[in-house]
Amino acid sequence: MDSFLQQFYQQLVNGISLGSIYALIALGYTMVYGIIRLINFAHGDIYMLGAYVAFFATTVFKLPFFPALIAAMVVSALVGVTIERFAYRPLRNAPKIAVLITAIGVSLFLEYGGMLAVSPQPRTFPALLPTGIFHIGGVVINSYQIIILAVSLILMAILTYIVHRTKIGKAMRAVSFDNDAARLMGIDVDRVISFTFAIGSALAAAAGVLVGIYYNSIDPLMGIMPGLKAFVAAVLGGIGILPGAMLGGVIMGVVEAMVSGFISSTFRDAAAFGILILILLFRPSGLLGKNVREKV
Amino acid sequence: MLKIEDINVYYGAIHALKGISLEVPEGEIVTLIGANGAGKSTTLRTISGLLKPRTGTITFEGKNIAGSPAQDIVKQGVSQVPEGRRIFANMSVLENLELGAYIRSDSKGIAQDLENVFQRFPRLRERKSQVAGTLSGGEQQMLAMGRALMSRPRLLLLDEPSMGLAPLLVKEIFAIIKEINASGTTILLVEQNANMALSIAQKAYVLETGRITLSGTAKELSESEAVRKAYLGG
């Protein structure tokens, strides 16, 4: 294989695994937006929280990988629901900008509260899983990349099942489509919103744990950049659209990997946010978004 | 069955309902007619719990439901077909009907009511797995009505079911409303099409800028000079 193609495939593998992390975080952004039209800027910090919960679960409580992952998802889901209950719900009828500013406040609270609680020092995430490196036709695949992809795909499959096949999932889609009509069906909208925050936060926490394992370093500000990039991913795919978040995440990951591999990793972030500018200029409703047609 | 006493509803500083009282006896069709902006939809939205009255009581089967959350009111047996139908256009016809039964968990009863809805609206059965947004206006109205019936309501609130429909379809929809009533569901019907509404109702109220200005049997109102001039075109 010539070296260009080999490099291309290598970056594709790296990009897909990074992208599935973005996709997991982007799903939370997009679900919350779909339900209450809020860009939850504290979402990236939930991802950080998930990583820390898994860190303490494995170092202090000596849990293995899967129980630690579940613990991180459960704790973060509870925190996500609590944040919604006390920070956003009182503002349900307030202007959007008030809620948005509150979200930024919650984000800063988690970041700097996190520093206070666990110190700003980065921590080394323990190696929870056996490492292995596979060579497939000159492309190097790390066993962590496979695990990241597998866990992400399983979680996305579960999410898709919940949203399309279960009663609460149908209620989520109904609330997202028309809040008042959903209330007329007897749907408890507040409960659906809590559930949405729980699921979104659990997915972000899973992403945090996977990143902890992959880069084996975590710190209280680790959520800022991935949070913003996942937000771009959600916008890229079409905010409010679940498959859009998955697609947007993978595209973001691949673009970043390609830019790092072929140009320079210093341009990586510029490329990510360049995508945001381009999508806002040329296709503001996102790749899978369409102008909603309504029949009267 | 339903008794509204002296409710006042505000949108911010706007006083939308100014001390409305009305009564819907069990088994009847009662209609609320009036011009655009008179407060007809506001009245229905307040009964359903989407809006809270600042003062006044709404009694349904002896219980005050004013200010209760919407989901509790649906559970009490009040279901609304909202203005403009408000179907879930991105979901299938079947999913829309399933959402109508959201508060219920008796899967047998739900299956039976689904069958009843399909019998009443055969076109919905044909289009069961079609995305609801692709239905015609008349079919969407049928879906909205079928969806409301899926909660097995004792009181059905209908907001402008004739809106935007061809005259022939309006007739069909009104015939169905009569059938639904005949099978035991009490109906409160809000309409701009006063002629049609008065022709199927037993009792009627006229709403003007947030106040009830006239009330009586449908027959009395359709013969009243004031109503004829204002709402029946002479």
Silhouette of chain B: globular
**How is the CATH topology of chain B named?**
Rossmann fold
**What is the general shape of chain A?**
globular
User: How would you characterize the largest beta sheet of chain B?
Assistant: 6 strands, mixed
Question: What Rg of chain B is obtained from the alpha carbons, in whole angstroms?
Answer: 17 Å
The averaged pLDDT of chain B comes out at 95
Cα Rg of chain A? 19 Å
CATH class of chain B: Alpha Beta
What string, H for helix and E for strand, traces the elements of chain B in order?
EEEHEEHEHHHHEHEHEEHH
Distance between the ends of chain A: 58 Å
**Count of discrete domains of chain B:** 1
Number of DSSP strands of chain B?
Answer: 10
Alpha plus pi helix count of chain A = 11
Q: Write the element-wise H/E pattern of chain A from the N-terminal end onward.
A: HHHHEEEHHHHEHHH
Our estimate of the beta-strand percent of chain A is under 5%
CATH homologous superfamily annotation of chain B: P-loop containing nucleotide triphosphate hydrolases
Numbering strands along the chain, what is their spatial order in the largest sheet of chain B? 6-7-8-3-9-10
CATH architecture of chain B, by name, is: 3-Layer(aba) Sandwich
Q: Which descriptors would you attach to this protein?
A:
heterodimer, A: 296 residues, mainly alpha, two-stranded antiparallel ribbon, two-stranded antiparallel sheet, 4% strand, globular, B: 234 residues, alpha/beta, Rossmann fold, four-stranded antiparallel beta sheet, 26% strand
Describe, in plain words, how this protein is organized in 3D:
The complex is a heterodimer of chains A (about 300) and B (about 230). By secondary structure, chain A is mainly alpha-helical. Chain A has a domain at about 15-125 and about 135-220. Helix content of chain A is about 75%, strand content about 5%. Chain A is built from eleven helices and four strands, in the order ααααβββααααβααα. In chain A, β2 and β3 form a beta hairpin. The longest helix of chain A is centred in the N-terminal third of the chain and has 34 residues, at about 5-35. Chain A is globular. The N and C termini of chain A lie far apart (about 60 Å). The relative contact order of chain A is 0.21. By secondary structure, chain B is α/β, with parallel strands linked by helices. Helix content of chain B is about 40%, strand content about 25%. Chain B has ten helices and ten strands. In chain B, the strands form two sheets. Chain B has a six-stranded mixed β-sheet with strand order 6-7-8-3-9-10, with helices on both faces. A four-stranded antiparallel β-sheet of chain B has the order 2-1-4-5, with helices on one face. At the A-B interface, α6 and α7 of A face α2, α3 and α6 of B.
